Amino acid sequence: MNTREPVIQEPDAFEPEATRREAGATESSRANRGWWDRNADDYQVEHGTFLGDDRFVWGPEGLDEVEAELLGPPEDLKGRDVLEIGAGAAQCARWLAAQGARPVALDLSHRQLQHAVRIGGSFPLVCADAGALPFADGSFDLVCSAYGALPFVADPRLVLRDVHRVLRPGGRLVFSVTHPIRWAFPDEPGPEGLTVSASYFDRTPYVEQGDDGRAVYVEHHRTLGDRVRDVVACGFRLVDLVEPEWPAWNTSEWGGWSPLRGNLIPGTAVFVCERD
């Protein structure tokens, strides 16, 4: 449980307009950096207890790396160089450090990383774009990302190619994203979120924008097939695709994720990939 007092910022006064329209790499990066900087405090207040200070949770279902072992057995993590992309307050990196790994926590949002500083840890924190990783070739044994970066970038292959570059041969990439099927349903946790309302095949980004038309939040949709093709095209071998079921113990709602929906449709997809 996170018992520390967060540093609170004043919330935004305006309500952005939600739409579906094209949004390129530069606009997406700028918008999402600003959104996470503005909303990091509220995010940590709302979800900090669920995430903990040093847990490795793959998504709202609560799939924990302790049981999942998607990065490998915990005892094998000791001494491994690990990059966490989209680290937020670095909860996952903190868990990795406790297993004896050497993590680096990277996030686009400076404010999210300030929360990582607040909680504490002796590993490096890096504020950078996932599509331009500031590391030398072959720097890491493992790369992981729990809902970080990939849902928010216009060109996921740009990120995956750079991850491939910084991974050592035989290294593993594991990342989780919103399950693509959820894009066909309203983002509602109750019964109203159980009726298909959009085409699963419509890849037009979801954009929230201000009165001036400038995007303040962007999320990009890829089908399940798109994700698989992206992974393979960037030099990875897909070794597992995990669709976590909603556990009976989890009574939480998180945006459109809920026990009601989670028992009927998948909410998260976790891709386990290896670099040959």
TrEMBL record:
Keywords for this protein: Methyltransferase, Transferase
Cited SUPFAM superfamilies: S-adenosyl-L-methionine-dependent methyltransferases
One Pfam family, short name: Methyltransf_11
Molecular-function GO terms, alphabetical: methyltransferase activity
Segments for region (Disordered): 1-38
Cited InterPro entries: Methyltransf_11, Methyltransf_Superfamily, SAM-dependent_MTases_sf
Residues covered by the Methyltransferase type domain: 83-175
Protein name from the UniProt record: Class I SAM-dependent methyltransferase
